[in-house]
Design a protein that fits this description.
Helix 1 crosses helix 2 and helix 6 packs parallel to helix 7. Helix 9 links the parallel strand 6 and strand 7. Helix content is 37%, strand content 18%.
Length: 276
């Protein structure tokens, strides 16, 4: 079987996928240890028996619903290639909105915490752009932090501090210049939890009470204590939650509250400033 035949066979097997072509290319690149350009340049190249076996196995895993990121243990985010496992959320392009907005507010020597860091995606993306900040990635899950540690080392961003804790409960008052977070924000009975990649991701990183806002309420209240005057709180949320998150921020005492849209033109990130 050559590369062209392998892709054709994979597309047929994954015909029910939303993206059979890109799925097959990602899986075949993983099996061959190559980049997509190689697939197009060497379409007649024969696969070894071992490569064919591995590719077939990966395609079957994908056909059963396994996320591509879990099969190949990797997902690109910002300018980084990150390891992901079933212990972390799969970083998504919409979360880059949070990174972009945060970078617009960053100043040298800021102490910034990424709450619920998971794979470390947000913390590492910020640190990769600004070597002059003090970056902490915090998570309650030791398993998630183990993945973040591997990514920190792979990205050679060893100045990022990783810390295990329950949101901001152990953080000193008036100590932070910025808080960023992609917390759980899905409603506990949301039918989307039974569909797509989220079926394979940790529920604790997805679900937050009956309205999906329990953790954002907690973060906003704790942030009010931990942020310095004029410091910023920035959270990702569901595309229908901007109004509710704005109210939560207002009730916690934040000012200059603003919501930003993601790449799909959906409300995705709300920020607020700690008053003087």
């Amino acid at each position: 079987m050559n590369i062209e035949q392998a892709l054709a066979t994979g597309r047929q097997t994954l015909s029910n996928s939303d993206s059979p072509e890109s799925d097959c290319q990602a899986l075949l690149c993983y099996a061959l240890g190559c980049n997509p350009t190689y697939l197009h340049t060497w379409r007649d190249k024969l696969l070894t028996d071992q490569q064919q076996h591995n590719y077939s196995d990966y395609v079957q895993q994908r056909a059963s619903g396994q996320p591509i990121a879990h099969i190949i243990s990797q997902r690109g985010f910002w300018s980084l290639d990150l390891k992901v496992t079933s212990n972390t959320l799969i970083p998504r392009p919409d979360t880059e909105t949070l990174v972009r907005i945060a970078l617009g507010k960053v100043a040298p020597e800021m102490l910034i915490v990424d709450l619920g860091t998971g794979s470390g995606a947000i913390a590492l993306a910020l640190a990769s752009e600004r070597a002059d900040i003090k970056m902490i990635g915090a998570d309650y899950s030791a398993s998630a932090l183990a993945v973040a540690k591997e990514n920190r080392e792979q990205c050679q961003l060893n100045h990022v501090v990783l810390w295990q804790g329950d949101w901001l409960s152990a953080v000193a008052s008036r100590s932070l210049d910025m808080i960023v977070s992609n917390p759980p924000y899905i409603e506990s009975d949301d039918p989307h939890l039974l569909q797509g990649d989220v079926r394979f991701e940790p529920l604790s990183a997805l679900v937050s009470g009956h309205d999906g806002l329990d953790d954002i309420r907690t973060i906003a209240q704790q942030a009010q204590r931990c942020l310095k005057p004029n410091a910023w709180l920035m959270v990702e949320h569901g595309y229908l939650q901007a109004e509710s998150v704005t109210v939560i921020f207002q009730q916690a005492g934040f000012v200059k509250i603003e919501t930003f849209k993601d790449y799909g033109d959906n409300d995705r990130v709300t920020i607020g400033q700690q008053p003087l």
